[in-house]
Amino acid sequence: MIEKFNFYDVYGYFLPGFALLALIWAPFGIITHQWPSLALASAVAAIILAYIVGHLIQIIAHHALPSTAKDPSQNERYPSDLFLDDEDKTFSVGFKQSLAAVILKAFT
Question: Cα separations (Å) of 108 from 2, 17, 89, 97?
């Protein structure tokens, strides 16, 4: 049950779901010249279907492209935390210090 409908529901679920459904339907519409009905009932059904498909896309994306990775201690962390950590040797200490200075200057 949705507690509160907000803009994320539109931008995160409905629009991606609508875009996928439109991409799937477009070739059939172009070839057969039959487009979805403009009746209110079919429009409401398409909106609901797009919203549900958007949720499915989010579920798949969450598992296929996770936003966190495991560090050597097997803790879930964001990649920026991993790369800028003192133990990580991907970037030099000088680069990390200059980046920290730029961030402090931008946010103070």
Answer: 38, 39, 28, 16
Contact between 60 and 16 (Cβ < 8 Å): no
pLDDT at 2 over 80: no
CB 84 within 8 A of CB 71: no
Residue range 59-108, pLDDT digits in tens: 999 999 988 888 888 888 888 888 888 888 888 989 989 998 999 999 98
Cα–Cα distance, 65 to 4 (Å, whole number): 26
The per-residue pLDDT for 98 is 93
Distance of CA 44 to the CA centre of its chain: 24
Give CA–CA dist 18/49, Å, rounded: 8
Burial 19-32 (b: 16+ CB within 10 A, else e): eebeeeeeeeeeee
